[in-house]
Write a structure and sequence with these properties.
The chain is α+β, with helices and mostly antiparallel strands. Helix content is about 60%, strand content about 5%. It has a four-stranded antiparallel beta sheet with strand order 2-3-1-4.
């Protein structure tokens, strides 16, 4: 009878007597306590037996301007501290960079290798859970907030600080190598461009020189041909003049012979003779030319003989001497000889000096990039003092709570089963 009275009673409206329920739960306190204790022990056992995970991180900040001055002062490559930090951050966030580091340092990840898995599969599982890149809030416009961090959560058995610090150094070295490669490529490209420009300038100069020589040669040829044409024309004219003069002399000789004029005379002297006892002075004034036959046959025949014996008429024309002089000067064009005899055409290329100077500067450019500081390591990863999971106190507290809830649940189930039995018993007795 006492057990039946201790069970909670349900009315027609299925209302529960909370006081009776509490009393029933109190009667089950040992069960609740036992279940709570078991769950708590299991939780504590899990907290102490589960693989502990640790967390460490490294923080990078922009390098000083002086650290990048040597690169920027070269004039062929420019990188700001913020850009360098961004590149290193991108390298840290790169799957390829992490995988290459994983491959190059297998001793750091030996505990991750599992039978039946490839190296890439083991790394993929670890990479998804372990690494996270820290960046400033993009909504904050503050230069002091410029940083990049790498955080790693790792299980016991892995040297987390060594992995993080090694990966940071690996990423920085990768970016530095890329900068060095970029500079080398830029230098080679600029040298190749300068060589093409120098060769083009030389080819252009050679073409211009050849064109100049061709123009001078053509001008000399044209001038020579014109002078030779003029010389032939003058000589033909002089020959024709001499032939005409001989014809005139022949005609005058015939007339003089007919008039019996042997010595030079005048028309008035031919018409009359003036005899005086003294000297005779004859003066004749006329505005007409005296005919040629008045020279007399002796003079005319002598002149004709001289003209017929002449082998060249060049001396009678001053222009022929000038033409001969000009033709002689055209035999050797000194401008062409000077242009053809140049041993070093580069000395006459005005823009070549600047290009050769730039080429010499690029070839002598020696950048010491071994010690290039792309970023400033603000915090190295160190061994943490505490684990991040499992959190033993939290797991134990959750074990107590879950154990208590589970114990109460089991107690309620037992109370409900007893209540049903007590209701079913009087019905069967009736």
């Amino acid at each position: 009878m006492s057990q039946e009275s201790s069970l909670p009673q349900y009315g027609n409206n299925d209302e529960i007597d909370l006081l009776a329920l509490f009393e029933s739960l109190w009667e089950q306190k040992l069960v609740i306590a036992a279940i709570t204790a078991v769950v708590t022990v299991l939780a504590i056992g899990y907290a102490f037996l589960a693989t502990p995970y640790y967390e460490t991180q490294s923080t990078l900040r922009p390098a000083a301007i002086k650290d990048l001055d040597e690169v920027n002062a070269s004039g062929i490559y420019e990188i700001t501290p913020e850009e360098a930090l961004h590149r290193v951050g991108s390298a840290l966030d790169s799957y390829e960079t992490r995988l290459n580091y994983y491959r190059d340092n297998p001793e750091l990840f030996s505990s991750l290798n599992k039978t039946g898995r490839s190296l890439e599969q083991s790394f993929e599982e670890f990479n998804q859970k372990a690494f996270s890149v820290l960046r400033p809030d993009p909504r904050r416009n503050d230069n002091l907030a410029s940083f990049v961090g790498l955080r790693m959560t790792y299980p016991r058995g892995i040297d987390g600080p060594a992995v993080v610090n090694g990966l940071v150094a690996y990423a920085i070295e990768g970016v530095r190598s890329q900068v060095e490669t970029d500079i080398e490529v830029l230098i080679n490209n600029r040298l190749a461009t300068l060589e093409r420009r120098i060769n083009a300038a030389r080819a252009s100069y050679e073409a211009e020189k050849e064109i100049r020589i061709a123009e001078l040669t053509e001008a000399d040829s044209l001038k020579r041909a014109q002078l030779q044409d003029e010389l032939r024309a003058l000589r033909e004219e002089l020959r024709q003049r001499r032939a005409d003069r001989i014809a005139q002399l022949d005609e005058a000789i015939r007339i003089a012979s007919a008039l019996n004029i042997r010595r030079p005379t005048t028309p008035s002297a031919l018409g009359q003779e003036v005899r005086t006892s003294g000297s005779v002075i004859r003066t004749e004034v006329t505005n007409q030319d005296i005919p040629l036959y008045f020279m007399g046959t002796d003079a005319l025949e002598a002149e004709r003989k001289a003209l017929e014996a002449r082998t060249s008429d060049d001396f009678t024309e001053p222009r022929i001497a000038e033409i001969t002089k000009e033709l002689q000067l055209l035999e050797h064009n000194r401008k062409i000889e000077v242009l053809s005899s140049r041993e070093n055409d580069d000395l006459f290329l005005t823009e070549l000096a600047e290009m050769r100077s730039e080429r010499a500067r690029l070839k002598s450019l020696q950048l010491n990039l071994e010690g290039l500081n792309l970023v400033r390591i603000d915090q190295w990863a160190i061994t943490p003092l505490n684990t991040v999971k499992p959190k033993k106190a939290l797991v134990a507290a959750l074990g107590v709570v879950l154990g208590g809830v589970l114990g109460v649940g089991v107690a309620l189930v037992r109370i409900a089963m007893r209540s049903r039995k007590s209701i079913a018993k009087p019905t069967s007795e009736a």
